[in-house]
Amino acid sequence: MVRKIKAKRVLQLRSEGLSGRAIAASQQISRNSVAAVLEAADAAGLRWDHVADRSEAEVYSLVFPGRGEHESVYAQPDFEKVHRELSRVGVTLKLLHGEYLDGCTEAGEPAMGYDRFCKSYQQHVLVTGLTSRVGHRAGQTIEVDWSGPTMQLLNPATGERSTVYLFVGCLPFSRYSFVQPALDMKQDTWLRAHVAMFEAFGGSVPRIVPDNLKTGVIKRPAEGEIVLNDAYREMAAHYSAAVLPGRVRKPKDKASVENTVAHVATWVIAGLRKQTFTTLAELRAAIIERVAAYNAEPFQKRAGSRSSVFEAEEKPLLRPLPAVGFEISRWVYGRRVGRNGHIAFGRNFYSVPYPHVGAKVDLRLTDTMLEVFHGPERLSSHLLLPESVVNEYRTHDADLPAGPGYRQWDQARVREWAERLGPSAVTVIDRIFESVPVAEQGLDPALAVLRMTRRYSAERVEAACQLALAGRVRSPRYAHLRPILETGQDKTPATPRPPRPGIGDEPGGYVRGAAYYAKGGTR
Fold first, then answer.
1. Whose CA, among 94, 202, 387, 390, lies 20 to 30 Å from 73?
2. Distance CA 152, CA 274 (A)
3. Which tens digit of pLDDT belongs to each residue from 80-102?
4. pLDDT at position 89, please?
């Protein structure tokens, strides 16, 4: 057949000096075919220099333009429309072929059969690239998502039912799947489900492909970088993975897990629909059993099962898990360090290195730890106090300034300060602490008295304390001493107060007797 003639090869051999007979003998083709190529090339003015850089098919089309091309005798369907219609619910190629036959009958044109119709559509899809098959490599990707269908737990005491959500993870290469029940879809639950999934798989992968849910992805702009949740990014980094969310409204970016979610509805939800569960642990055990059966089910168009392919081909390629599993954390931003070198959280106080007093820091909280960060730098870490503990301090000695001058305020330290003022100040401070049931309650009023030395001299404060003690208030405080200092009473010499006269010393006078007040008495 003329179509099998290697026209480019024939022209190459002629340029090398071979005759037509020699070319036919070396290429095992007839001399007539060689002669046809040479005559056609000469007529078109083609030389080896003209076609040396072209492909065999291009040279053939230049030598024999139009040869081998033919048009189908059948009416050609609009395959662009066919492809669009197939995306609609319930539309099949069989239905579209029937509509194509009806159109050809009305137009009086010959129609192709159903088999040719399907093959022509497949060829159209391959040529135009309307869809493509995603090739997956073993041990490279995990696709994760929440299942749309949910399950329920029954409270036997009240009869109330609570919703259970299903986290689904899938390895696209083997289609090996993981399902985890959860009572909510919050960020901590989302992260814990990932940790459990990696432990169930026995390894991690370089890529995690989630949906664009808010617990994982803060922002996914059309242009620019994706903004991930800090905790989600840290979890992925802990397992040496990168989070690559699928495009918005593009389920084909994670088609494997979407398909698995549909299978979960059949294997797990429908398979357990006749059973009633009262605890999450009980439901989790049943789900693990059903998912194991799903993974062991043989493929329909592939040898083996999900479990066999995973164990034999994919599991050996997974990255080893870190020695310590990821600990779930959350962040609190913009906490200011107090003047005492501590930050407040949960009604308790935790120390921060003293050079950062007054600065704003970020807190990373886990179930057991509190870590203080200033930008990327970790300043300190503390064991987290229980929620039942209030007004407790966690202090590292290294966070405090060096030297004996920096100490926590207590009764002994406050009294040392008072002793530097004088005996009257010591008496005032002692009486303040005696008036409260807990010594810590006296710290603030006692320090308020002593801090008056910032405005007044120590001598004046001591004199004010002496003057206040001479009054009727047994335990004078800041409110009693401030008026004395503001009005300058401490500067005037104290005059002794005259003694209160006794009852027998009162001056005499006319005193009416009891009879004067008796009923009916005379005046």
1. 94
2. 12
3. 888 777 755 457 888 889 889 99
4. 46
Q: Is the pTM of this model over 0.85?
A: no
Structure tokens at 443: 């710290």
Q: Which residue has the higher pLDDT, 221 or 448?
A: 448
**Residue 191 resides in a domain:** yes
| Structural domain contains residue 512 | no
Amino acid type, 220: R
292 & 170 share domain? yes
289: which 2 tokens?
Answer: 């059993």
Looking at residues 220-228, what average pLDDT do you find? 54
Question: Hey, what are 468's tokens?
Answer: 């206040």
Domain that holds residue 452: 411-491
> Using H for helix, E for strand and C for coil, what is the string for 37-75?
HHHHHHHHCCCHHHHCCCCHHHHHHHHCCCCCCCCCCCC
If asked whether residues 374 and 272 sit together in one domain, one would say no
Closest C-alpha among 362, 310, 315 to residue 336: 362
The per-residue pLDDT for 128 is 61
Q: What span, in angstroms and rounded, lies between the C-alpha atoms of 118 and 68?
A: 24
389 and 431 inside one domain: no
Q: Write the pLDDT tens digit of every residue in 213-222.
A: 766 565 555 5
Which of these, 272, 267, 195, 265, lies nearest to 236 by C-alpha position?
Answer: 195
User: CB within 8 A of 230, min separation 6: which ones?
Assistant: 331
Q: What are the backbone angles phi and psi of residue 310, rounded to the nearest 5°?
A: -65, -50
Both 394 and 459 in one domain: the answer is: no
Which of 373, 399, 425 is at the close of a domain? Answer: 399
Question: Quick check: 199 pLDDT over 60?
Answer: yes
**What is residue 71's predicted lDDT score, i.e. its pLDDT?**
60
Q: Does the pLDDT of residue 137 top 80, yes or no? A: no
- Is the pLDDT at 133 greater than 50, yes or no? no
Contacts of 364 (CB under 8 A, 6+ apart): 329, 330, 331, 370, 371, 373
Angle between helix 458-469 and helix 423-434 axes, rounded to 10 deg: 60
What is the C-alpha to C-alpha distance for residues 276 and 152, in angstroms, rounded to an integer? 8
Residues 53 and 199 in one domain: no
Residue 405 lies in a domain: no
> In DSSP terms, which residues pair with 220 in a beta bridge?
none
As a whole number of angstroms, the distance between CA 103 and CA 116 comes to 17
Q: Kindly report, residue by residue over 141-197, the tens digit of the pLDDT.
A: 888 888 878 888 988 888 889 999 999 888 888 888 899 999 988 888 888 899 999
On whether both 112 and 10 belong to a single domain, the answer is: no
> Which domain-ending residue is among 346, 373, 399?
399
| 207, 284: one domain | yes
- pLDDT for position 350: 93
| Coil, helix or strand at residue 26 | helix
Q: What does the radius of gyration of the chain's CA atoms come to, in whole angstroms?
A: 46
Residues whose CB is less than 8 angstroms from the CB of residue 219 and which lie 6 or more positions away in sequence, other chains included: 226, 227
Can you tell me the mean pLDDT for 108-127? 84
User: For the chain, what percent of residues have pLDDT higher than 90?
Assistant: 21
Q: Are residues 185 and 291 in the same domain?
A: yes
Domains identified in the chain, total number: 5
